[in-house]
């Protein structure tokens, strides 16, 4: 029932205004009819107060659109009633009190205070100077001041509560929007991470497979007895590619999928296997270490391995090089990886029309763990990729 009444009030605001104004007028008429008797025993007429109250109640119709004007009209009506000899009670002040409440709720605090001060000064001054019936001074001063202060305080509290609820609602919407944007951002980052993994796995193994296949085709004509060894290496390379591809795609599985646990992510511990694979494809890779080797966090370890893998893959694919060198330099909190070759054609530094994203992916990987990557020509020929990574993310 309460919900239905609230919905009716929201759907018929003008009808509610009419009912409120009628009730305020009845209260004002009652106040004018119950005025105190004069010392001479004469009863003050009730109808002038009722007329003044009616004028103030009619003005209440516009209290939401013109709150300042309505306060002025109701204050003049109440002050006129006081000048005629009526005792200013909350019954006679009902139109002014409602107007002050609306003003305090719809406007700022400074406007409400000015209106309150003006109403108090006007009513108290008139009651003190125009009273010919000997009303008690406390009822002429403290009473009117108290009754006009109350609606202003209530209206201000209502306005502040509404502002607080609006601010809370805005904060909730902002938090919800921020959560959605953060979720989309995390999804985009995860997609980019998986795309980099797939690119590194596929590009590396396909480059090795292509090199091994070319070598096998060449040896078929020149050294047939060595073809079997190359084909065995090719089978191992494709098998390794399938395993890494399965592990990478497995990242997309649902959390409740418990089939076939994923293999551990590769790291610099598999660097020997990586260089051996390139050696089978015709690229001799040497590895050197400078400084005290330190354990890396899993994310940095995977990033370092993938950067070395991609750099060597670019050498095998794009550079006319026979040898490459990988240098790992450790400090207290950073490690530097340098991959250089002796070729005469560098890997592309930007995406090519054929879709080369090698250096871009390496740079993104380095930045994802707080590192940085530089790549460029060597003065003596060839190409160098230098990466500085933190030991711990």
From TrEMBL:
UniProt keyword terms in alphabetical order: ATP-binding, Kinase, Membrane, Nucleotide-binding, Phosphoprotein, Transferase, Transmembrane, Transmembrane helix, Two-component regulatory system
Pfam family, one: HATPase_c
Taxonomy, superkingdom: Bacteria
Molecular-function GO term, any one: ATP binding
Reaction(s) catalysed by this chain's protein: ATP + protein L-histidine = ADP + protein N-phospho-L-histidine
Single GO cellular component term: membrane
Protein name as catalogued: histidine kinase
